[in-house]
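Blackboard transcription, Thursday session:
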Amino acid sequence: MSAYTLPRHLGLLAVGVLAVLASSYLLEPYRLFQAATVAAFLCATAGLTVLTGLNGQLSLGHGALMAVGAYSLALSQRALAERGLTGGGALPISLLAAVLVTTALGAVIGVAAARIRGPYLAGVTLTVAIAVPALTVTFSGVFNGEQGLAVPLAPPPAVLGPYFPYERWQLWLVAAVTLLALLLLTNLVRSRYGRLLRAVRDDEVAAGLAGLPVAGIRVLAFVVSAAAAGLGGALLALLTQNVSPGAFSLALSLSLLTAVVVGGLGRLAGAAWGALLLVALPELTHSLAEALPLTPALAHRMEGNLPLAIFGLTLVLVVIVAPGGVQGHLSRLAQAAWTRLPHRAAPPTT
Amino acid sequence: MDRFLFLTLDGLSRGAVYAAFALALVLIWRAARAVNFAQGAMAAATAYVGYGVAAATGSYWIGFLTAIAAGLLLGAAVERIVMRHVGHASPLSPVIVALGLVLVIQAGLGIVYGNEFRPAPTPLSRSAVTVGGLRLLSPYDLFVFGAVGVVVVALAWIFARTAVGLRMRAAAFAPDVARLLGVRVGGMLTLGWALASAVGALAAMLVVPTELGLHPNAMDLVFVSAFTAAVVGGLESPPGAVVGGLAVGLALSYVGGYAGSDVTPLAVLTLLLAVLLIRPGGLFATATARQV
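(Written on the board underneath:)
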């Protein structure tokens, strides 16, 4: 980490805080909810970017890790509410519980993953994505089966006034947690550990020969990434106020992967594009389906499926045609513009 | 004892399907060094075609053959239109593209047919024949064994005894040398995908009626079970895939029978992890020096 990295990241954090505050007063409630959803997904996509983009480990199970975070938060919130603890003290405890549980699970999967490569790891994480929703049905006494659990969330504190919109409060909460997580992740990525992650990704054998603890670094990547995904799932549960296995299917895991690949693997900024896409695309296809003259039955079948079809098609096209993703192209454009600036283009004549 | 026998026979019948599906995975792995993660979704699509045709013509067997023909076409199309153009810059690329196909196919099926389970009738009775108070196999189980047996023997014959099989093996084993000797390596790759996808279609036609029915995600759990079976066999060996399929079928049948069918996905995960951690190369792997 260079001497300027932390101040720069703190500056970016300040910009982020201002942007969230400004938008929370400008947007209508539904948009506030969507902005908060983007923030929750950003947590998960940033985690997946650290794992897949920077460390080269493919995970198809991050949707399941989000589910684990969401259920941990729900169970913790409910347990605390039963003991009469609902106010400001309950939420940090529940969020911490969600992070701790997914961290522990990430460590377990990570230790296994450190010994498994390529398609095998993809197969294992795919199985995780299918097994976790099944778990909620198996132990329906705890998780209430397909119905899922309601997530209690205390209303905004009275200090903010009696008419403070609930959605604004949700956005503040979710954005605050996400910004904090992003600050930690960007610092990690820029630090010595970030370089170790990339070294192991680029050439594992060389990294091992250079004396790096390859297995440990792979486990670390999985742990960090799982914690971020769990936190993202917990935030999502706070927003929807409900967790059910249907929301965390294999399709979610594949959509998360699509988001980070399309956003641009290996760059945290790409994770932001991906999170935006995850919320914007269903919205766009919804308005498209409403504009088209469709029968109600067809419109119903389009509802959840069309965004997934477009996600899949985009994923295939991006990998074949534009492997850098959105952020890769943006940085190339920025670089081209930079080199064409007058002071660069014209060589000194003196 | 009765129950144990029933679960054993049921597990073998299930395992035969996993074996066929695992064989399809092994075919593509040997030809292209890629695991086709879209195989479950592709097989589900061909099963929809098969049952659509069966319902339209009133004949299960016409639908059955149509599904296999659709499998051949779909496999060839996926290789020609998509997989051929995937760059090899990152080893993750083919996997990611296959997952994109999963989303496209499953969402496409959902748009066309809807996301509910559709009934898939069987051509033969599924009630077991009872001999001396013991429930044995049903006529449908016998059909499953017969169909998978024919496929296994046919594939073995194609690869070991025919000129096309020899070219396919050459193209997979040493593409550059094969090309110099006049083998159309690209064509062999397409053929490999087509064959694998047809075998997947067969497996889907066989397994879908024994589960809840047709659904865009109907083959997800079958895919991971078959992947586990292929890993047990080492991804490299067709006989390993068959033995692995039967073993996984038995294991899952016992778990489902004694602990409840909800636990099956967890059992698959445990089994897959156990095999990968204890013998990463599969139970049939011969020791090779690691290449650096």
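Lecturer's comment: The first strand of chain B starts at residue 130 and ends at 131.
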